């Protein structure tokens, strides 16, 4: 076909395939031990409970509604459940009008980018950060300001009042961040919220991993400190099943109304069917018994990987000890380029995500992300041993 | 909350809530006879078959895959089924790489807008046309060129070579169009395809209603005449269930690859769960027995509404006799503004969609769209009688 038949828009030309995506293709080979994917463990999926939920829906009058077009905002009982849960947990008094259901929280990022970014709009991101967020925002051509982070998460002292006043929003993942697995400390949450309020800065708080705290000791969310300044993004992908693609946005009603319009243009609404099922699964408090099992499973795998890192890695290699979530962030000696290491590692049947794609500006090349939840203990030991020997 | 905390992008400011959306809110009142919605009839939903499909998935090893993240392109067996079906029907030799599964075909329109429209890009639309298409494209700020249509659909003679050469694409719904219910004639399909090939024009062929031909005598699609120049959009919403939000895009691989990247940024992928279910439902030819039932049901309702229009409407009112689909397009005397009529009609418990929102430029105000598939015969008679008396 002649390429002259169409011409891509500027935004389409800038968009490149994500590194994660290309890597995942390689790691679909069954002989590769993959620490690359951000996939939750399938053994955490509540298959029986979901099957029961579907049966209950099909045995009720809900079936026809679950198969019909629905409101763009989402299924009302599910929205009510979400806002009740968040109000209770974060001590807030929000209403159902503060909630929009989205087709996975990736869609939340896209809708926020559409709603808030023009060419050259300044946005603040902690660094490193979720590459799917960067990829989505980049479509709308912002100017990134990167805020450095350390083991306590992003450092609010590095955020100037000037940037806070002039940026469209600050994007952050406070809990068990992707890619670092770090949790933003309590003191920093308070400080960041204060700075946001003082400078009328909008915080975009992305929280897919918040429930995966191994000790079940959740810190208050940014939205609890700065409810008028925060858009909170939640997800069922890591606590129920990602194949249902269910997430939600909580925010000020004037912002939610606009996001509803953008969502209507994007896909009319999130599938009714999956929303009905999710609600049926969770409405009677099922997550209270289910989530502790996921935490236990992930904590166990995390501990095991940390032990193997201790056992095999040379002294020049450093990593964090996550208190939750799915990722460990590993720092190698500065002369090692992890993107080059990946090619070598894949030849030895091991995969990870090189750190450079997680930086908005000035990528550091000596970091890598390890995911531990979809691999067995045998695979973890074998994979870490191989990686260590390659690094040495 | 202070509005100074965020500033909407230009595209967000331009976007307005759709008329259909506002109207649907009114028509949720159970006392209103609504000819407004574009909803398929719930009595056409294959509830038992879908329940069986879910059971089969949960009784197999597919369950965990159906609940896990999946590839952005979509579930491979579903893509294969789609391309086999289209190849057979349209006598083409496309491959699975020509197919991308989307979260309802509204998403296809959004992805195409993102991929192909910059500020001021010229795009061609038949007029009137689907307002959800206009709403989505408008986000990306194109310049619309409207091509007039008559009872045989859009008139290719009104498309100049100059416009065909310089436009990014032409958007058309050849079968039982929304809002007019018209079908593009065979001769015009050929002529349009020739013009597209001659001028290297991309055709966006949106075909959600193609299977709803009352006589089961489908005309060849534009993609069969101009396979290199056509992006074909299909949907399961009108032949299976819209609450599953499943559609697909068929096009040249270089275009599909870019749309895949944009889709990844938009929502990672369409829910795996609904894709597995749809495939399980249709894989053994179930649609061949199911679709004729929908056709019969819709034909019957259509005939009945046409009879009531004959019986009650004054001679100054005109309408088409659809050969398929869900809509009748009604022309009133020029002095009647149907948006004003709607307010009056809703006060009398009847709703429809006023025609003006379906025009890209220079809206005509004396048309209205009637949907007949979700209303009973009693409601049709009562509603048309009321409308006729208001028009008189």
TrEMBL record, chains A, B:
InterPro entries: Aminotransferase_I/II_large, Class-I_PLP-dep_aminotransf, PyrdxlP-dep_Trfase, PyrdxlP-dep_Trfase_major, PyrdxlP-dep_Trfase_small. Its cofactor is pyridoxal 5'-phosphate. GO terms for molecular function: transaminase activity. Residues 44-386 form the Aminotransferase class I/classII large domain. It comes from the Bacteria. The keyword Lipid metabolism does not apply. Pfam families: Aminotran_1_2 (PF00155). Keywords: Aminotransferase, Pyridoxal phosphate, Transferase. Coiled coil: none annotated. This is PLP-dependent aminotransferase family protein. It comes from Frischella japonica.
């Amino acid at each position: 076909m002649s390429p002259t038949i169409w011409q891509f828009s500027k935004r389409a030309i800038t968009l490149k395939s994500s590194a994660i995506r290309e890597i995942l293709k390689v790691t679909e080979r069954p002989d590769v031990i993959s620490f690359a994917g951000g996939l939750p463990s399938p053994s955490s999926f509540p298959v029986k409970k979901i099957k029961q939920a579907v049966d209950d829906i099909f045995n009720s009058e809900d079936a026809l509604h679950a198969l019909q077009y629905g409101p763009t905002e989402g299924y009302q009982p599910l929205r009510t459940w979400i806002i009740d849960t968040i109000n209770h947990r974060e001590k807030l008094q929000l209403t159902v009008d503060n909630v929009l259901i989205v087709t996975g929280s990736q869609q939340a990022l896209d809708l926020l980018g559409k709603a808030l970014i023009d060419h050259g709009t300044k946005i603040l991101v902690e660094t490193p950060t979720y590459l799917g967020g960067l990829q989505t925002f980049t479509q709308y051509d912002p100017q990134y300001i990167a805020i450095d982070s350390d083991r306590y998460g992003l450092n609010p002292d590095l955020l100037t009042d000037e940037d806070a006043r002039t940026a469209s929003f600050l994007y952050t993942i406070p809990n068990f961040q992707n890619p670092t697995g770090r949790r933003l400390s309590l003191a920093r949450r308070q400080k960041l919220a204060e700075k946001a309020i003082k400078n009328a800065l909008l915080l975009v708080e992305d929280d897919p991993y918040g429930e995966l705290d191994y000790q079940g000791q959740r810190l208050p969310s940014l939205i609890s400190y700065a409810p008028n300044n925060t858009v909170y993004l939640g997800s069922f992908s890591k606590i129920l099943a990602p194949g249902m693609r269910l997430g939600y946005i909580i925010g000020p009603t004037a912002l939610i109304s606009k996001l509803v319009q953008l969502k209507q243009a994007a896909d009319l609404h999130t599938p009714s069917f999956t929303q009905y099922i999710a609600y049926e699964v969770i409405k009677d408090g099922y997550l209270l018994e289910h989530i502790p099992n996921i935490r236990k499973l992930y904590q166990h795998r995390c501990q095991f990987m940390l032990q193997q890192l201790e056992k095999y890695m040379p002294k020049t290699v450093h990593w964090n000890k996550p208190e939750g979530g799915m990722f460990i962030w590993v720092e190698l000696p500065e002369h090692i380029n992890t993107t080059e290491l990946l090619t070598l590692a894949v030849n030895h049947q091991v995969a990870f995500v090189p750190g450079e794609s997680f930086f908005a500006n000035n990528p550091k090349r000596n970091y890598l992300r390890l995911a531990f939840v979809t691999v067995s203990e045998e695979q973890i030991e074998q994979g870490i041993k191989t990686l260590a020997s390659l690094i040495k």
